[in-house]
Amino acid sequence: MKLSQDTTDYAEYEILKKTDIISAKITNIIDEAEEYCFLITPYFNEWIHLERSLEAANKQKKRIVFFFSEKQDLDEYKDRKKKDRITEFYKKYNFDIIYIKNLHAKIYLNEKEAIITSMNLYDSSNRYNYEIGVLIKNKDIVDLIYNDIILNYIYNTGKADELTLKGYYYKLLETNNSIENDNRYCVYCGTSMKQVNDNLYCNHCHESLHDFNQNNFNFCNICGKSTKENKLSLCSSCYKKYKQNND
Asked: 7-177 belongs to which homologous superfamily?
C-alpha cells in the first residue's frame, strides 16, 4: 500500500513516515528548545545538520542531555577512535552523557514536544534506514513522558553511574527535579520565563498591567496550559501535584 503523505498532522500529534522528515523534526526539537532538550538514542554519530543544531544549542547555552546505551560505550572501548570521538564530543560541548543499561528506546524531547521513533541519532540511520515515528504536541503528555518514562523509569532504574559524563543538567537529574520546576509561565500571556521566587508575571506584563487579580489568570504558572475556565494560577493537574508535594 502506498502512503499518500510523508506526515499525517493532527492537533496533538503528527505521524512521521519518512526518515528525512524524522531527521528534520529531531533537529527542530533541538532548535526550538528554550532551555533544555533530552536526546535518548542507544547509538550516536551525528550528521552535518544535527551537528549544526547542537553547535547552535551550545552557543545559546541550552542544556542538552544525551542517554546512550551502555553497549555503545563497551563497543567503543574496543575501538579507540570511536571512544575518543565520544570523549571529544563531551569536552567540546559539556552536554550530559548518561549511559543506560540495555537501552533500546529512542525519544527526543524539549519543553513542548516529544518524538518517539525507531530512529537512532546515527548517520547511517539517517542515510539508509526506513524509519517511522510520532511527534507529540500535547504538553501534558510531553511532561508525562519526561517524568514517568525518562526520569522515573529509564534514568532511575537503568543508569550506569560509573560511565556518566556530567554536564550542565546532572544536578537536577540527581535531585529528581522535573523539568517544569526549572521554568515558569506568565499567568497573563503564557510566555515562558525564568523562575524567580513566586513571580506570576513576565517582566512585560508586570510593567504594563495595572491590576493584579484573578481576572488576569489565563495560563498555568507551571506548565503554561490555559486556565481561562477556572481563573487560577495553576491548572488542575499541576495543582494536584503541588498539593501532593506540599501536604
From this structure: Endonuclease Chain A (3.30.870.10)
